Amino acid sequence: MDFIFTPEHIAVTDLFGNDIKYIIPEYQRPYSWDCLGKSNKNNQINTMWNDLFDYFIENQKNNEYFFGSMVLIEKENREFEVIDGQQRLTTLNILFASVKCFLREIKNSKEDIIEYSFNSDKTKFDNFIDTAVQEIDKLLYNIDTWGLMPQKKLKIEKFNGFDYDNVLKLTLECKHKSIIDISNANDEQKTIAFRYFNNRDYFIGKLKEEFLTKNKFTEPKAILLDKFVAFLKKRVSLVRIKTPNFNCAYQIFEILNNRGLPLSNKDLLRNFIIKEFATLKSTNDKYKDIQPAQQWNDLDQNYILDIDFISRWIESKKASQQKYSAFNDLMDIYNDPKNQFYKDDINSPKIVKIYQDISSDLDNYTKIISNLIPNNNIANKIIFLLNAGNQRYTINILLSMLRACPYDENKENILIDFLTEYEKYIIYTYLNHASRFSNSVIYKSIYLLNKNDIEAAKNVFKDFTNEEELVNLIQGDIKDNFDAKLLIYKYLLYIDILCENDVIYQNILFEKATLEHIIPLKPETDSNWTKDFTEEFRKKYTYKLGNMTLLTRTLNSNANNHDFLIKQKDYKKTKLALTHILSYLPQINQEYIENRHKEIINAIYKDLKINN
């Protein structure tokens, strides 16, 4: 590839010259600069305003303010695709629009905001406003001869189906944010859309602070504003780097990208995929019709591609913790000359191979996170493991498991057996305080899964679990509330499987549940607990599963150490059947707790396939 590019040192007025058009492609991340935060990670707008205005006030001569660089792909007819610099470009548009909106607000104000020192000539003042607005519009729009069909100089392609270009259009037209259609937008899209308006309104607020005197717009302030806009147009400069293609642009972008928000692993993965497919498109006729940006969009729009996925993918592939950043480790795997799989061959380029791998594992990751496995038993076991702590390692091993043994109905028992052994290992390490959870055990199992030996991978957990001791631990005293809560949750998930054809499905919010001891740890004096239960029985069963259930924190606090009849009022308020049924008991006694204990532990044994 010929590394040819054209750098230009230009002022803002030339950046927004006649008949120029900038396209922010769909694969770029959405508009990110903000005015609401308290650090440089989320208040770039505040920083930009302070830097520009302070420089303007302190440097009244012809000193330039350098605003950074932009990397563009030059198309035909003065059209440019923005590879780097979209945040600056968009924000400059919004800043100029804010000046226009500020002036319009003054002109249309019904209050006495204007102090006529323009020789008391309102016409002169109105002409000043109209001329200023027209000059600003020349920066924002390509205007035809008659001025009837102005076209924005900056266009934003749709991102994940949302029309941010229309949001920018309304922002530049001084519309209120309530006018945008967000009926089908998700929370992230709403936040991004409002960001355009919030930033514009922030700039308008700053313009009022600096260019109004006691809420009056005076001639001296109008002159100062004119000078400020001239400063923005002629003394704020950038380096515009024009390149002929994506590969050249991306290479420069990687070198220069040291300002703005740091790129996340996801951003880097996006750029890598688009770059590699762009190279493939230009060098291999077999792939001449491929759309590099669409390759990325297929991943980002069809699956849950969050910032955690790449780390989980790396560790599940390497069977070890990531060494550097997740993306750097991915590059190590991709470029490792010893890795025979990710190697170009006649049938398939290596970018296609790794893309297919990532796509397949991303599909599994989405099923894991969203609980989309069709088999309820498998789905509930995954839910249990994700709530059992050490989620990082659990997702790693689940990705490896589904890679070694992709889900289908004929493999359900294989997957259930593997998950059950992992569950037993997790529960055993929690209850047996002499044993500790070890990520080396996880990575040993992952290593074997990556060799497609699921039986050996399952036996790794067997080797570290004493099943006979586990039986005694489950039926014994459990004084750690989290451990007990987890086992009650395990019981409830098993019961859910037994009732999977029922008309009711219970979605238990594990993080909101707290452990409730039916017989209180410290029962009130003269309560039914001291009258109906012997001290010996209470000592034996207080910390056993038969004496436990789940409640929200508020209801649990209310239940406290009270008499059973008082507790029943709170038990009745929950929809959780295990707890709710207690509210209908005419009385509670030792036999009930004993039988309840046997039912819970036997159900857990069956679910864990423990012969007791």
Topology of this protein?
Elements: E1 6-11, H1 12-15, E2 21-24, H2 44-58, E3 65-74, E4 79-84, H3 86-108, H4 122-140, E5 141-142, E6 151-152, E7 154-156, H5 164-172, H6 187-211, H7 219-234, E8 236-243, H8 246-256, H9 265-283, H10 292-302, H11 309-318, H12 326-335, H13 350-370, H14 376-387, H15 391-404, H16 412-431, H17 439-449, H18 454-463, H19 467-475, H20 481-498, E9 513-517, H21 528-532, H22 535-541, E10 548-552, H23 553-559, H24 564-571, H25 577-580, H26 590-607
Parallel strand pairs: 2-4, 2-7, 3-8
Antiparallel strand pairs: 1-8, 3-4, 5-6, 9-10
Helix pairs in contact: 3-4, 3-6, 5-6, 9-10, 11-15, 13-15, 14-15, 14-16, 14-20, 15-17, 16-18, 16-19, 17-18, 20-26, 23-24
Q: Biggest sheet: strands, sense, closure?
A: 6 strands, mixed
The radius of gyration over CA amounts to: 33 Å
Strand order of the largest sheet: 1-8-3-4-2-7
Query: How many helices does DSSP assign?
Result: 26
Q: What's the domain count?
A: 3
Helix content: 40-55%
Strand content: 5-15%
Low-confidence stretches: none
Query: Based on DSSP secondary structure assignment, what is the total number of beta strands?
Result: 10
Envelope shape: flat
Going by helix content, strand content and strand pairing, the class is: alpha/beta
